[in-house]
Amino acid sequence: MNNTRSIDQDVLEQIIREVFEKMNTTQASPRTEPSKDNDFTIDPQRIPVGISVRHVHICKEDIEKLFGPGAELHPERTLYQGDFAANETVSLIGPKMRLLERVRILGPMRDRTQVELAKTDTIFLGVDAPLRMSGDLKDSAPITIIGPKGVVELKEGCIRAMRHIHMNTKEAKYFGLKDGELVKVRVGGPSAVTFDNVVVRVSDNVRLQIHLDTDEGNVADINCKREIEIIKD
Amino acid sequence: MNNTRSIDQDVLEQIIREVFEKMNTTQASPRTEPSKDNDFTIDPQRIPVGISVRHVHICKEDIEKLFGPGAELHPERTLYQGDFAANETVSLIGPKMRLLERVRILGPMRDRTQVELAKTDTIFLGVDAPLRMSGDLKDSAPITIIGPKGVVELKEGCIRAMRHIHMNTKEAKYFGLKDGELVKVRVGGPSAVTFDNVVVRVSDNVRLQIHLDTDEGNVADINCKREIEIIKD
Q1: Residue A144 near residue A157 (C-beta atoms within 8 A)
Q2: Phi/psi at B151 (5° precision)
Q3: Closest CB to A192 among B91, B196, B216
Q4: pLDDT-based confidence at B95, cuts 50/70/90?
Q5: Is pLDDT above 50 for B45?
Q6: What is the distance, to the nearest Å, from the Cα of residue B140 to the centroid of all Cα atoms in its chain?
């Protein structure tokens, strides 16, 4: 067994991605397309769930540092909200000098580079990433991103994403919720969990969906069909 | 960077253990020794928490298969409930033929070998471990245990441990709870979570303590002081 005493991080990452992609697909398949005006159907006890695996959003300047001048993202797979998982992946390094490999970049490109990790990832890397909404990067954690053509040392930009619910204006009205409001989300079953402090994010061009990270997905045991319920305080 | 593209599992395991040992220590230190008759102090909103990292309980027959004839466990560290973490570790293999290394054995020895994993571990190994109370192993998952001197192929014995609360008779009476009853446990803070279906385990010679696994600890963000509250339905 001595020849197999180190586990390749590529293999590990691939497994995790496959499992969670399958989970996302399972959850998304019975969706009711609630954002279409002519087909407004919501079952408040069965909200679609997306599990976010650790990922990076990238700006034009940084993608060129990491992948070379003129580099672009190449979509591999369209995601539930219309953005995409890119073919391009990077590695991450924190103060413990341990490498987290094959971290997927999500596109399209943004104005600013941002790294989103689960708590388990932050422990592994030794990064003290704060719990934040996407885009709220002031005084967030520094992290180093490794690409095939170069390195980006972010002074700040690494966060743990706060769990949140995307909904459009019509859906928000249906639930009686406002943008920025905090609700609870309950996942049933033997591992039943209620997550407090789930942020409501109201905007157009989104589909109703609860976003959890991999730690939250694992604890709630969301790989089979579960009732996912929004609870207002 | 090519020389560091695979992460050594020993290092990973060591980090995780260090972090969680620190977490356990932090949580356990302000304890009030509630099981002593002359010092019966319980704050129901501040119950001590122990985070169980993946581990193995082992029987005499299997320790000899894994470590050689006459092998014994050597205590490395006494745990909160009086049992111990042994010096001895094993590796685990599931149907995906991926190796989870340096999994700690907890002593003393038991009548039957049992492997307790978090959901994240079961995804990595590809083991379909059911959610069970310790000792309830009928039709639980098969798993292969690797030791320096041999291999044990368990036909059943691998579980995900149901979260539970240890308490003695006096504490159970204080809370109005019975052995086997299910309660909710709430962890406050920005990542506030309520765990349903936490099993009350009443017995003598235990100290009041909530047992969560690493996935649950990470989601609840229990590495700083948090109020841990029992909620009766």
Answers
A1: no
A2: -125, 140
A3: B196
A4: very high
A5: yes
A6: 17
Between residues B222 and A138, the one the model is more confident about: A138
Q: Is the dihedral of CA B140, B144, B146, B152 positive or negative?
A: positive
Average pLDDT over residues A78-98: 94
pLDDT at A18: 54
- CB-CB under 8 Å, B192 with A193: no
Distance from CA of B162 to the nearest CA of A (A): 8
Nearest CB to A7 within list B19, B98, B221: B98
Contact yes or no for A87/A106 (Cβ under 8 A): no
Left (φ > 0), alpha (ψ -120 to 50) or beta: where does B197 sit? Answer: left
Task: State yes or no: ipTM above 0.85.
Answer: no
Task: Test B15 with A218 for CB contact under 8 angstroms.
Answer: no
The answer to whether the CB atoms of A123 and B15 lie below 8 A apart is yes
Q: Which residues of B touch A (CB under 8 A)?
A: 1, 4-12, 15-16, 19, 91, 96, 98-99, 101, 118-120, 123-124, 131, 146, 162, 190-197, 214-216, 218-219, 221
Q: pLDDT (tens digit, 9 = 90+) per residue, B149-192?
A: 999 999 999 999 999 999 999 999 999 999 999 999 999 888 89
Can you tell me the distance from the alpha carbon of B11 to that of A96, in angstroms, rounded to the nearest whole number? 11
